[in-house]
Amino acid sequence: MAPMGVRLSPLGVAVFCLLGVGVIYHLYAGVISSRLAAFRMRGKVDLKDLLAVSVEAAVLGGTEVKKVREENDLKEKSKGKTKEGANELLTMGDLQSHRKMFNLISNTFPEVTVNSEEHDNTVDKAAAWSRDIPTDIRDKIEGGKYVPAESITVWIDPLDATQEYTENLVKYVTTMVCVAVDGKPVIGVIHQPFTGFTAWAFVGQGSNMRPRQSYTVSPPKAIVSRSHSGTVKSYVHEAFGNSTTIIEAGGAGYKVLSLLEMPSSETGSMDKADVYIHVTFIKKWDICAGAALLKALGGHMTTLKGEDIDYSGTPVNKGGLVASVGVDHKALLERLPNWDPEKH
After folding, report:
1. Which of 32, 74, 183, 245 is deepest in the core (most CB within 10 A)?
2. Are residues 204 and 231 in the same domain?
């Protein structure tokens, strides 16, 4: 029997060729489309991913902070004096935490500017994001919030409250990460290494924290720095009266958490305050994470004059600080006496 063959008319050949071209076109169109999409995403960062990495970095840094403290291997030394004359300390806890946090974020997002309180030449190219997004972030935060990498500044405080850390007053110690976009705080993470609790917020998206119920406080309970409490105490008393309760505490991160509604399991040793006031220079890695948390919850962190703080450029905030949530921030500002931090 003669072998069977397939014969196509000229029209059939033309149709077959057109179908083939169509298949090839659709195949290549899909490849080109996906490559164009990838090209458009180059240089952009999904803020949901950056939030997850920020939480992971803060926790990793906190593990180092706790380990060094428990091994009592601080190797503390002075970095110099602050403008107010306070001793700035550096410990192995600061350094080890910095190495974990800085390398993890920098390796994951190499195009993003990362500013840390500490400086160290140790490079860990193996530090990599686990790709894990915590359940509460996955449930509350939408993905696809892309912003240009060049608009982002990340502020890291590898160990907030180093003075208290050396004194073993560990309740004040935190590790912090803040993400600012075009100078505005958008993501804040404050981790407490010695309780394991992590507070986070993404402005306009969600948080695992809650503000306290709105209330009117007169006079407010103010929380201030332990390191130069004499100056700020007189300022607070002048603003709100001599009967004002003043809490002296270490660490800007801790002070912000004292303004919030903490989970019941974490409230045992936490102070509770209505306003956080600072009257001298303060670094942006100390306050940016707290600013994002408060903003996400309807609160405010401003200079003493009520100005917004720009979280880009120089690391120094020279305008002092007033932070609150759940109270009338404008009314608080109106009570404050004139003060120039640059002259004190």
Report:
1. 74
2. no
Token pair listed for 28: 């290549």
Residues annotated in a binding site for Mg(2+): 117, 157, 159-160, 286
Question: 197 near 174, Cβ under 8 Å?
Answer: no
What is the token pair recorded at 176? Answer: 């912090």
Mean of the per-residue pLDDT values of the chain: 88
Buried residues in 170-189 as b, exposed as e (16+ CB within 10 A): bbbbbbbbbbbbeebbbbbb
Residue 178 lies in a domain: yes
Q: Are residues 246 and 300 in the same domain?
A: yes
- Based on the fold, state whether residues 195 and 283 are members of the same structural domain: no
Contacts (Cβ under 8 Å, ≥6 apart) of 282: 252, 316, 317, 320, 321
pLDDT of residue 71: 97
Instruction: Note the pLDDT tens digit of each residue in 52-76.
Output: 999 999 999 999 999 999 999 999 9
How many CB atoms within 10 Å of residue 295? 20
Residue 222 · residue 274 · CB < 8 Å: yes
Identity of the residue numbered 330: K
Determine contact, residues 223/255, Cβ cutoff 8 Å.
yes
Q: Retrieve residue 253's tokens.
A: 């991160």
Q: E-strand spans in the chain? A: 44-46, 77-81, 87-90, 113-116, 146-148, 152-160, 174-181, 184-192, 197-202, 206-207, 210-211, 222-225, 246-249, 260-261, 275-278, 282-283, 300-302, 316-317, 321-324
Q: What is the pLDDT of residue 88?
A: 78
- Domain of 306: which CATH number? 3.40.190.80
Structural domain range at position 220: 211-343
CATH number of the domain enclosing 195: 3.30.540.10
CA distances from 46 to 109, 139, 140 (A): 10, 16, 15
Residue at a domain's end among 179, 209, 239: 209
- 241 CB-contact burial (10 Å; exposed 0-12 / middle 13-18 / buried 19+): exposed
Chain-centroid distance of CA 88 in Å reads: 22
Residue 332 — pLDDT band, cuts 50, 70, 90? very high
Binding site feature residues: 117, 157, 159-160, 286
Query: Which amino acid, one-letter code, is at 6?
Result: V
